[in-house]
Amino acid sequence: MLRRALASTLVLALVATSIGAASPALAPHLAAARRKSPPWLSIEAPVNPYDAATRDAVFLVRAMVREGTTRVDDLAGSAEGLVGGRRQSIALRFDATPRPDVYAVRRQWPAGGTWVVRVTLLRNVTALVSLDRAGSVTGVRVPTQLSGGMPLPRAVAPGEIDSTLADAAARR
Questions:
Q1: Most CB within 10 Å of its CB: which of 32, 90, 97, 104?
Q2: What is the pLDDT of residue 5?
């Protein structure tokens, strides 16, 4: 038993060494895989009420790119709502925070009605944020599609925003 365990450890050590030695040959493939890594969005809620920089934000957006940092200009968004049976769309402003790649979204839509927030990073990653009557986050979805076995962000169709809004209205 001990002999098998030692043999397994030796095999793992040899494999690790050979992978390390082969890494220059693998470098172009690893670099290509890194370039294919898409940007991503995460939504943080509830927001820390003890942080003065973000205290009155509804939620925070963490924008991630493979290399470098993001800017406010990399984000776009809108609050999509149903108010009194009428559809409304309000462009959003994102506020930079002291933390790199983290942006605050403060309430910029009316208190009445049903609202869903669309946040987009670099035109190809979108988060749909569902809100309750009080304006608190109840759900987040980043639509993806499988490509090569990996979920990649995809564009959001207007019908998806409409159906997310209709689902939020039905829950009220």
A1: 104
A2: 42
